[in-house]
Fold each of these.
Amino acid sequence: RIMRPDDANIAGNVHGGTILKMIEEAGAIISTRHCNSQAGEPSVAALARVERTDFLSPMCIGEVANVSAEITYTSRHSVEVQVNVMSENILTGAKKLTNKATLWYVPLSLKNVNKVLEVPPIQYTRKEQEDEGKKRYEEQKLDRLETKQRNGDVIFPIINPEPHTVGYSQSSLIHLVGPSDCTLLGFVHGGVTMKLMDEVAGIVAARHCKTNIVTASVDAINFHEKIKKGCVITISGRMTFTSNKSMEIEVFVDADPFVDEPRERYRAVSAFFTYVSLSKEGKPLPVPQLLTETEDEKRRFEEGKGRYLQTKAKRQAQMQQAAQQ
Amino acid sequence: RIMRPDDANIAGNVHGGTILKMIEEAGAIISTRHCNSQAGEPSVAALARVERTDFLSPMCIGEVANVSAEITYTSRHSVEVQVNVMSENILTGAKKLTNKATLWYVPLSLKNVNKVLEVPPIQYTRKEQEDEGKKRYEEQKLDRLETKQRNGDVIFPIINPEPHTVGYSQSSLIHLVGPSDCTLLGFVHGGVTMKLMDEVAGIVAARHCKTNIVTASVDAINFHEKIKKGCVITISGRMTFTSNKSMEIEVFVDADPFVDEPRERYRAVSAFFTYVSLSKEGKPLPVPQLLTETEDEKRRFEEGKGRYLQTKAKRQAQMQQAAQQ
Amino acid sequence: RIMRPDDANIAGNVHGGTILKMIEEAGAIISTRHCNSQAGEPSVAALARVERTDFLSPMCIGEVANVSAEITYTSRHSVEVQVNVMSENILTGAKKLTNKATLWYVPLSLKNVNKVLEVPPIQYTRKEQEDEGKKRYEEQKLDRLETKQRNGDVIFPIINPEPHTVGYSQSSLIHLVGPSDCTLLGFVHGGVTMKLMDEVAGIVAARHCKTNIVTASVDAINFHEKIKKGCVITISGRMTFTSNKSMEIEVFVDADPFVDEPRERYRAVSAFFTYVSLSKEGKPLPVPQLLTETEDEKRRFEEGKGRYLQTKAKRQAQMQQAAQQ
């Protein structure tokens, strides 16, 4: 579809969140279709996890987004989907790969939303494909467990913070979940949640560096808990790390089922977003260093640095590999 | 209402699809109101057909759209509505007729959606009005039957197409039907479908000629099949004909009731859209000729030429008639 | 237009904010049209104030909103507009007055947004009309000055608050101002701001009483400061007063022109919203009493009580007057 002014920031760059929402919609369609391809109980595929995603080149207003999706692995209860987004300038015909994403879905019964159904197996053309898929499946399963334990952190408000401290840019947003946000099962689409997360992370980044910012990458996101229609969700973001030219922001999503529900507020999702600051010509700008004050902030900065260096090393290894081929 | 940036393309011209959506909403309101004006089973008017519509002058961001609707004929089971759209520049006070449309609605029972109810007859001021309406009614009925037969065609993807061939510009878009897209009966508003059709047709036209394009006219659209909430719809478009300054695009809408429905994918709507290419000063530009390769493409080109010449002849006859008066 | 699921809460009642947005759009159109009705510098009418508005009966999904607007007074630099909203059930034909609102607009030059232009005078059918209008004009002018002074208050976050305290339900929302939120001058439509204010106030009310809530009335809102495209706005709400069956919530809007602007964060708008809690049958429910802790909270509760009693007395006086006629 064509990118509209509302999909983009004032510099005309499409929000990362808009792209994540399109990716998730494509993934939900293909995996729901697959899970209902054999006779049996009807089901709706719910997003369980999105693997780390890099935004390779910014998309602009007026360009057309081409989204293609393919099922690459099935376990007994989950589906792995690979989604590619190409941006196409229909005036010049130029096409660019915007990003590639890998998503995991789980089929939930349409009649009983707490029941996970079985997934019809796909056919692999080579035995290797299945083995590699299984390896990816095991890895993400382990990672899901780990983040579940980490998930208890809370962002406390800070009064009169200094510029460039963590408290200065931290932000939060509340959203009342409406019918358009939800699947047939009455739960929020994963893509809607990711779009709101990107919105908060973008505001944190812009408050910190006060320039035009764009999403550079999103770390793996695990959806541990479903969010029901009618909930109020609070999305909070704080900066954890800055390199010379990038900012890492941690985002939490808490759901508050406050009408007619006995349940307390709970943490539904958390993730790390990385942003860069762009000049008017689209070149990356230096970013002011994050000032850490408390022990926790310093620890999180070091952890963020670890993730940053690891990603950088991985990317260099990939580039060397590519150069050798 | 005031036209916003999201209603328009990057050159500031309001999408034909936005206007079609407003027209259909006005038609649905007036015909639902009429069908419930007498005591009896409550009903919701569903769009059955839109007659050929010309876009007389482009509307721009910031202008106000004034939409007026009037019932012009009733048969036993259908209502004919005439809708006019005026664009008003509230700064200069200038008003222009943007388009006139004729829509046909059918009242469906609120309790049993497969039951078509009777329409209360309207009063005609002159006997002629009734006769002319009846003639229009018979004509559209015949045309509806014909398009139903034509509806089986499918658009296949083409790999590495040459510029200006049919395969080069053909496009498709997938949309998951949400609650805001639907009427009280849980079926997609005709206006929502037309807006998506216009979006796809616009992408096809822009891919072909790589300039700023606007909707010039829409041929009669017949809504043979309803589309239910929760369906995935695929809207595909391909170019069928080019004259020196216009492009004709055929658009298909297929619905995929992929959850909880035994039904196969089916063709819901099809229609022809005509686009022109505009220079920055708003003047029509020449259009590159469509290169036809297969026998089918050549046949469709000739058929498109037939429609083009017929419309041109009709318009000239009208102008001569107007000149003689 | 037809009310959609997205316009309403999960009980199907249309949000007060949706109605306020429609009212303001109608007011902006009629006053911009009037201000440009004579030759001279083109201008766009900007919302300066909305008088107190009562929501007389709830509107539901599927109903049609009929909005009518009329200019009732002009001063040298401002326009008073009266807007009525009728809800129409197109199935039964039943119409109800949803609310009446009075809005004040000021024409700003399209070329120089800081220049307020002159308003062409309207013709009054009776001298009394002009005198009464002038009286309303003087009253609102006085009230505007007063609220400007009150506007410095800030909502501080509270950690682990007790149920039914002020801190327990207070909420805030951030929103990045996009192109669709703005007028031709690049400033946020008053209606967009009011919709967001109603959203926050509704969340505060629902958090307090955990039931289905609807907007009952909005006190006069003064728009002291314009908000520019690209700003981040923070909308915060806190409960100030509860009667047996109503809740009063104070809402603040702060704008943060954080990209490319030398200006600090500033207070753009503030207002009081009153909500009631409804049972499934649509009857008003008792509301838990607000627990006030600090001196400021107690003071605000007494002030809210004052406003509540004043409104009640006014309404009784009007009813007696109506009964005597």
Amino acid sequence: MKKFTYMFEEGNAGMKNLLGGKGANLAEMRGLGLPVPNGFTITTEACLDYYEKDETISEELEGQIKDLLSRLEKETNKAFNSTKSPLLVSVRSGARASMPGMMDTVLNLGLNDKVVETLAGLTSNRRFAFDSYRRFIMMFSDVVKGINKDEFESLMDAAKQAKGVEEDNDLDAADLEKVTRQSLARYKEIMGEDFPQDPYVQLMDAVKAVFRSWNNPRAVYYRQINNIPSDWGTAVNIQEMVFGNLGNSSGSGVAFSRSPATGENRIYGEFLVNAQGEDVVAGVRTPMDWEEMKDWMPDVYEEFKAIAKQLENHYGDMQDIEFTIEKEKLYLLQTRNGKRTADAALQIAVDMVEEGIIDKHRALMQIESKLLDNLLHPSFEAGALKKAKPIAKGLPASPGAATGGLVFSVEAACEAVNAGKKIILACVETSAEDIEGMNIAEGILTAKGGMTSHAAVVARGMGTCCVSGCSSLRINKEAKVMEVQGKRYREGDIISLDGSTGCVYDTEIETVEADLSDVFTTVLSWANDIRRLNVRANADKKEDVAKAMELGAGGIGLCRTEHMFFAKDRIFEFRKMILAEDEATRQAQLDKLLAIQQADFEDIFRILKGYPATIRLLDPPLHEFLPVEREEREELAEGMGIPLDKLQTMMRALREVNPMLGMRGCRLAIVFPEIAEMQTKAIIQAAITVKKEGIEVNPEIMVPLVSDIKEQAYLRKIIDSVAKQVLAEENVDLTYSVGCMIETPRAALTSGEIALEADFFSYGTNDLTQMGYGLSRDDAGKILDVYYEKEIFETDPTAILDQKGIGRMIRISSTEGREGKPEIQLGICGEHGGEASSIRLCHELNFDYVSCSPYRVPIAILAAAQAQINCPREYLGADLQKWPL
Amino acid sequence: MKKFTYMFEEGNAGMKNLLGGKGANLAEMRGLGLPVPNGFTITTEACLDYYEKDETISEELEGQIKDLLSRLEKETNKAFNSTKSPLLVSVRSGARASMPGMMDTVLNLGLNDKVVETLAGLTSNRRFAFDSYRRFIMMFSDVVKGINKDEFESLMDAAKQAKGVEEDNDLDAADLEKVTRQSLARYKEIMGEDFPQDPYVQLMDAVKAVFRSWNNPRAVYYRQINNIPSDWGTAVNIQEMVFGNLGNSSGSGVAFSRSPATGENRIYGEFLVNAQGEDVVAGVRTPMDWEEMKDWMPDVYEEFKAIAKQLENHYGDMQDIEFTIEKEKLYLLQTRNGKRTADAALQIAVDMVEEGIIDKHRALMQIESKLLDNLLHPSFEAGALKKAKPIAKGLPASPGAATGGLVFSVEAACEAVNAGKKIILACVETSAEDIEGMNIAEGILTAKGGMTSHAAVVARGMGTCCVSGCSSLRINKEAKVMEVQGKRYREGDIISLDGSTGCVYDTEIETVEADLSDVFTTVLSWANDIRRLNVRANADKKEDVAKAMELGAGGIGLCRTEHMFFAKDRIFEFRKMILAEDEATRQAQLDKLLAIQQADFEDIFRILKGYPATIRLLDPPLHEFLPVEREEREELAEGMGIPLDKLQTMMRALREVNPMLGMRGCRLAIVFPEIAEMQTKAIIQAAITVKKEGIEVNPEIMVPLVSDIKEQAYLRKIIDSVAKQVLAEENVDLTYSVGCMIETPRAALTSGEIALEADFFSYGTNDLTQMGYGLSRDDAGKILDVYYEKEIFETDPTAILDQKGIGRMIRISSTEGREGKPEIQLGICGEHGGEASSIRLCHELNFDYVSCSPYRVPIAILAAAQAQINCPREYLGADLQKWPL
């Protein structure tokens, strides 16, 4: 027989999976001897059992609840329905992970027509007793029976109106007794039966309701957003009620053991005299600052201060504590690690280490890595932001805050910026040829595309704020107008974007620049000491490379060579190369591009000073580079000396049905080896030049989109032969390596073989995810929306790496790749490279590095350190411990 | 002491591991007492010994070689360096597994300055002697010393230039003698020593060179790719040279023991008097027909006839035999199973069984299953075809032969066919809306698209001849013109297509109708008795279903429900459904479609009479159904009562960047559950109707493009609930099953889980291949061309299932799927379902069935029987023998 129920004294903080966060912490506090009202917890397993049994409570479970209820009655010396000492309880949800306010709670359970009188007598407070009862009726009706609260609120409103008063507090005991009777009548009217008078029936109904609330829409939504599995279930806590509203020697409040805003080491909280916890949350009266407690109830002030410190020391983290004072006696109702801003997180971590409360490892574990993002980008001034109202919401594709005049084209962007204006570039979706405009924009806004759409990926790389996939926008580029729910915005209209929330505003909002604090640097230096994974950056412009190194990168894990060709002067030559009708013309164009690319590589090598640079051969479908605008086409045709018609035909020939599955990646280099030859030449010549300057260089040449060993072998041969020739000509010795991306499922499943021809593998998790799911990131948007709604997907697999299917490919590939070539270097360079759970996978597979956008480098460093703390080398299987060699 | 050398008379065909394939077969013929030139084999173990001893030949091995060389000299009554009767030998590699062309060979070994004179005298053919010598010098220098052949070829070129002739044959004995001397001088110049004159030294050097060639880069690479262990080593065969070019009592030829064209039981061959085998192959002179041998050399004629019969009986198959006659003495140089036409293959198989030479199992194994395809479709009359010259060549996408007038659109196709004309439909690529035109065309020709492009798949399903991906065509639909290398063809111009070769002609060629012969029927009935795999067909029209059953199918493995909506009257309603702006309108349209679809299913169930029908829910991206022509758009807009503009906007909203990776498959049904509901209703209602007629029904409802268990679970719930409701309404009991396609890599890798929600898996190998490689079948054409040219791919993975990567996914999926649900039914319904190697994989994984186009059913039946003969149930691993349960 499974144990489905635990008295608080039977549990502890380590039992979160079973007791939920709230239950486990109540048990822990109880174990610490702290003043916690008595109670017991019904486990998360009981919740799952409830769902397995078609939403019924088994006899077994009911039996256990009854047993513990008796124990609770004994402990408290109170009893359900007692006319001397009636037991009232709260029934609260509590999942493994905190889901604040998402699920349901019933308070004051145990009240009925008889007990309310007893309570009135015991407390000598008839008003309190009937207020509690009517609240209970309303809450029970809402949570258990689904009756809208308004049905009961309206009775209160009527009573106040009749009496000519405005506040609930202005109603007296008699008024409330009347409202209570009316509430009972309304209940019967709606439900066709009397309000349940048996506290035990009330209890079982409430327990079921809390179980059900695990699947209410807002809880489901919250789980999606926060990556919480739906099969965890919620626990239910049954706890003796204590009352903060028994007069002026009672009260309720919430306090943090340190400031959640700045991290300052002092108690920060609020409380209300003669009030219940919910009154504090609801904000009906303005609460008092914690420090006022000192005057009001100095003993409680000191007691709480000591308890807060004790809890903080015990949990080793800043605590968020709920308390109630019933007639001068302090009760703790909840403690949990407090939520905090990024600034506070860093400050608290550093302070607590200095105070000797925790070590660096624990400190690092307390900082949510993705919070760092906010510290690296400008943000809206908090006050100003509060006042602004979003006009639309898209995906938070690249963090930061930006305000500027709306533009719809690269041309308009250039014009406005040249005129000294700040701009927001709005597009249906961006493509490679918008790069220049994206580069000079304050922010980027797209109507289509997900978290790994072109706009999102490029913006993150640039560190530019971006909101993508904002589907309520209608953008008409030709007409230069953007429509949002009937309102039209034209070029020059002010738009503000919050890339961290996805919100779009039509007002100017003051922004605050990012400023790396000392604690930030301290935390990063700890993380750097601890992490075993290297962190590299995906960058291709020298500014980005420099930024990445400044932020702590240990090299470049992905240099996309195609990005180097988008500047106005370069793209023209590049297009002529693509459209060359014979090899000689193509070669002539390539020679021009060689010089440009070589100079770029030299700049990068100089900045890297010997740190590795993984340079990827040309990857995207060629037609991505071709001009869209007629004007540009005409210009190109003229430049090539051919009629526009012919150019159009040539461009049409390059068009593909599924460009993601077409002529791209290594296929380009196999079909046009002269491109790979030019790029190899540029890399090796640049390396030689920089080496001659006395700077170390470490180029890694990467072949994209391999799916078969023979592709890799073919290109490796070309690369090696060009490199050999160049090195021979210059009579220089240079170490370089040649590897490939593993980004097709077949490459992952034949990695043992491919490793024979590769010095390194770099996992391209974007494509691996796209192809593994058969779902294009550009087309996923509306599908994912429906999938979330129908609970098919909980997270976007293009943002959070799917460990089950895609992760399995990576496991198979890395294991077999190393069997094929033990010294092979393994890394990840997809968008997931900056995401904590993916970094953890890479750590556990003992990869050499992860690579991410420059601005995510600090996040990745922290996540890598956390992965090492969570799973030190000796935890890895023996088969993995030997890697990297 | 290990035995490292075997005279041919000591070996047999069973000793392949030790003697290599070639050595074992020569020994076998020798053992049969046939006239094989004498020789011996140095074993594969000797090769390994050579490597173990740091690439030296041990004294022991050398001693054995010397011994057998003496035996060879004794047997041949010739000797190295003899001035009376010199021994010349060939030195050839021969591994356990055939590695054609990977390792080295030296011929005419034993020649030197002295022996060449003896040879000249003995043969009275000085030119022959010196030509043999100079060839030997070149081959030895290349293979043993690594000197580039060009060093010697250039001497021949110079000699020809000096004499003002073009052909080697125009050089006389004196010329060749001079080239020989120059070759010897060049050798000395490069090597700094004389060319070895001692035949024994030549032999040992050559043996070492052959051993070394086991590890030359191309052999190493070949082994890697073909999974041949590097520790097998190669054997070396030393064999006496015989010469067919020693005058008019000598000759060489090739003969088949039966006609390779018709299977007729008589010797069919060709020979040349005074010629070597290579002359026959090179076709310098017109060879004589085998029957002329009777007059020329009646004894040899009779001797060979008896030998051919003996070899045929011994090997149990028609033989392709190479022979040389040296001065009236017949020598056999090779025998192997002969290649043959489909007609011959069937005739020979049936005859040989009747003659009692082989049993049915062996007979079936001798028929290459894919040859049957030619027998099921019309073909060009052989004589007429010989005269025709192709204007272009594409992919042989669907077999058969067709002649007709060119058309470029469905409209033109209908018009011409209504006027009683035969047509060839030419398109850049076809899409769903061309179905009607494809249906009435004699043949289909496309400029783009691979072996599994839309045109190819649909044409094969219809049994219509198709040439796809013919990239040298420029097709302009608007201008109604097709251009091929400068020549223009217009509507009505006669075009002929050969779907079995991919050739396109611009003349009318007489076609011959297919006629299933008695031997065909006999062979199929044998195969049906033996096969264990079921064979189903992919079909959705009742005619195709009937055809499939006629050709032996055991049910339908894939009924594509979308194909049912392309008829003119249906597509209109279907389009209105797709574009419905609200659920009510969509539901109204769906109700109309329900009746249509239900009637179709009823027809199919009636034909199937209880055989299973796997019906797939709507699969393709919706925009594939939308009208392309303006006229049709206008019609549709009018029909929907909306402005054309609005329709265009709605259509644009459906457009996707990568439709293959977008809103298709189960995603459609999840986003629009009402479509799945309608289809389920149609299936179940049709099944009920037909069952009430007393006909058994067995519907299987299939969900496409699943990538996660939750998708399958969501739709299964919908399907089951609709089915339950319909069955309850009709009060009927009906068995149906619900399964899914495994066609995304992630589905394959999470099959253990998905199986929990599926009664069957059907592998969609088209998509699995597309996504596994990241290569769209529609865009693969030009890429594959280059890949073949550069030897990166040997076959089209969309035509021949890649067993290594994609096959591995299927292995993982089927194994884990069965672990998840032991009784799960497994089948394959991709294009590979009719291809022998894929069928063998399915057999070895103990699948329940394969499913293919109707016209490939006989092929699949034969291939399934062959798989069973090759690998009977008891050969399967214990883990597989238990399946299917």
Amino acid sequence: MRKLKYHVAMSLDGFIAREDDSVDDFPANLSPEHVTDYLYSLASEYDTVLMGRGTYEFGLNVGVTDPYPSFETYVFSRSLQESPDPRVHLVREDVVGFVRELKTRPGKQTDMSRVIRAAQMGLPKDIYLAGGGLLATTLLDAGLIDEVIIKVNPVLFGSGKALVPRLARKADLELLSTKVYRNGVVLLQYAVKR
Amino acid sequence: MRKLKYHVAMSLDGFIAREDDSVDDFPANLSPEHVTDYLYSLASEYDTVLMGRGTYEFGLNVGVTDPYPSFETYVFSRSLQESPDPRVHLVREDVVGFVRELKTRPGKQTDMSRVIRAAQMGLPKDIYLAGGGLLATTLLDAGLIDEVIIKVNPVLFGSGKALVPRLARKADLELLSTKVYRNGVVLLQYAVKR
């Protein structure tokens, strides 16, 4: 089964955005070193992206109706009536059932075979959960998130949108990898323990 | 001037304790590798410890009136009437003024000279801010915290006592060092930018 990975930038004190959903205060977003890594990771790891309404509307407010044009895109909302873009699928109910089924669908094959002949069989691409926190909480409580990948930015917000607000119970993690960027961002990759 | 360092364990999502101030869910607290490092750091870096009432009372509730017997100890509270221990100093008002003055006092010398002759002059020991978040917020907003040292534990709480609740404005940090422990704890050391 494909993995669902919650992959977001965060302030050191656990916020993935300011109260208004802006993320301008994350230096990670401005560093070429970081952006290169992030785009490579997106292109090689995922073929599908999930996001909550707040995360989607942050792009929509600046005119972006299809933020990830190379991915199958699903926006979860009870209040939106229809999708503003034919490529963007709106899921209005049964979030958990929908994502559980989505994980069983075969992912696209990675194109690593262009680089490494031994990898010609490819690996199924995974599902990228881009935010927000409420959607992540629902999916984590339902046992559907496999990895949590956090870009810890060197900043304290003190308030904002939490990583996983109102989680029903604590979730134990296993540290898989770390990477330190020159701009002070620390990438932490965890598996969610079952 | 001596440094004030906010040095705490935290869940990945930014909580330094559960709602009841307990910290039992931090695996860091159970790992010999980690405890050794932590005790060495305490002994070599600090001679003074500051804490809020909630943090102090968590120990008090299990009968510990003097949690750091080798340090000068200050507890900040408006509601406590007197200190339960003659070694523990209660500060009831003007937190900011008190800490500002405390930082100007000379710290004890480190005893590194026993190990390295060139360090015979020693270095002044710093001030350890052990929690909680409200005291840290007050002191950070007043520009008095020099470093933030976080032991990121591989766990998501979803709620609890925040690292710096209700900060007046965001605080930019500079990453100074990182260390990864075998138990999945990641130590992140930052300087607070002025």
Amino acid sequence: MTLQLKGLLAGSDRPELGDACPIDRASSLVARRSTILLLREASYGTTRFDEFVTRTGLTESVTANQLRNLVSEGLLVKVPYQEPSQRQRFEYALTEAGHDLVPIVMALGEWGEKHRPRTNWLGLTHADCGARVHMALTCEAGHAVREPDVVVSLEHRQP
Amino acid sequence: MTLQLKGLLAGSDRPELGDACPIDRASSLVARRSTILLLREASYGTTRFDEFVTRTGLTESVTANQLRNLVSEGLLVKVPYQEPSQRQRFEYALTEAGHDLVPIVMALGEWGEKHRPRTNWLGLTHADCGARVHMALTCEAGHAVREPDVVVSLEHRQP
């Protein structure tokens, strides 16, 4: 029971998609543990370099490189701040593109909690009503959508 | 406007979470482009080694190593098959843990389509009603949940 395929995805002789596939484009960008941990921290409200280092356990060098990369990819924005009698520093905040990855990061947490449970328990709840929050595929008509009922279509964009 | 934090996540002196964080546990496993491409293909119905190689563009060696890794991590299961006058071979299918990652892979596609558009267009639709499919945070009371209304709680599991 897999997804249903249309367009360039149909047919068993389908070639490598490479850059034609937006899943590949996204994964080339985010498929790195350090990236996911920094996005997790940004979604938790961490803004400052030293806190990113402490809370992720990444080295200063990896943190600096990956923060720079996330800024250049447009997932974080760098904002100057200055405390009294200190030199100017920068803090980091999620852009819209960065915020759009937060549900994916939370869905990884939900998956980890279900399939790799340990001594700690991670729960996502809705602040307004207290009910548990899940990541789910839903359609614009409001239906919950099961995997076999998703049609994935890849097509040449109309000019 | 970030997530709301509770339990071990509350407090600005919060230390590195490391293995205590299920997001980290999941990302250590899936944060690799080759893994995401192989999961994409498995969700598209690809089962055989040669097809995984052709359709992902990964080398045979990377494909073999990563398929082995996905089997040992319990995301794929290996099933023997034999065609007439051929030696026994194996095909690969998603386990429940693997299927649970498919919405995340599709959400990466949705993100890539929105934030890294190219000449091809990826669309997800609901087979039953034709409406567009999105990945969204929803609560068990049926509300669509915005990022600032998600409470993330990490706690020691009760014995």
